[in-house]
Amino acid sequence: MGIVSPGFHGRRRQGDVKLPPGQYLTDDFPVLSAGPTPRVGQDEWEFVVTTETGERHRWSWREFLALPSETPTVDIHCVTKWSKLGTTWTGVSLDTLLADVETTADYALARSYGGYTTNLPLEDLLDGRAWLAYRFDGEDLHPEHGGPVRLLVPHLYFWKSAKWVHGLDLLTQDEPGFWETAGYHDYGDPWLEQRYQGD
Ligand SMILES: Nc1nc2c(c(=O)[nH]1)N[C@H]1C(S)=C(S)[C@@H](COP(=O)(O)O)O[C@H]1N2
Ligand SMILES: [Mo]
């Protein structure tokens, strides 16, 4: 015991960590919400995808939980400059949810209970890059962190990961959401430091 081979890929040491530009590490899990925390019970929660033709696909909590889940471990990066590494979630991949949704849309607008919205290209929700997460660190997702269900899109700044997510509008034209309308970047790639419009 005690010998770690050079190829060991377990817990990353501080010196090995590559953070996006301008970010610092935190072990805390800060809460960032633009308004009060909506209390959405699992029984009333539903997820609704509305396509560009107005077709609606909906999942109740029960139907949602019956879908195959994944347990991704990912790094998250907030535009206020904290990053948290190796966070583990349980959720349903958007690939799974959108598998039978027919669409030619290029954009998505996520809608949350409470009115928050955020936009992203539809392709950024696909190919194993986005989940509807309902557990964090082995426990039901806490309401402050978006429970019962939040969007998790770790390759973009964390404002794109809509808490208390209620649905997705699939759109043929990009439509800015809450923070994007307020001057934040339309796409928000942390590695390109796309914090604000014009970055
Ligand atoms: N519905 C909703 N989702 C949201 C927000 C919000 O205010 N409302 N804030 C965003 C921002 S700016 C960040 S950094 C993360 C924060 O998630 P956390 O509170 O779980 O850390 O949620 C994002 N999703
Ligand atoms: Mo944020």
UniProtKB/TrEMBL annotation:
- InterPro entries, from UniProt? OxRdtase_Mopterin-bd_dom, OxRdtase_Mopterin-bd_sf
Concerning CDD domains, the annotation shows:
arch_bact_SO_family_Moco
Output the superkingdom of the source species.
Bacteria
* Pfam families attached to this UniProt entry: Oxidored_molyb
List residues traversing the bilayer. none
Q: In this protein, which residues make up the domain named Oxidoreductase molybdopterin-binding?
A: 35-179
**SUPFAM superfamilies listed in its UniProt record:** Oxidoreductase molybdopterin-binding domain (SSF56524)
- Extract the PANTHER family matched here: OXIDOREDUCTASE MOLYBDOPTERIN-BINDING DOMAIN-CONTAINING PROTEIN, PROTEIN-METHIONINE-SULFOXIDE REDUCTASE
**UniProt-recorded name of the protein:** Sulfite oxidase-like oxidoreductase
Source organism: Actinomadura montaniterrae
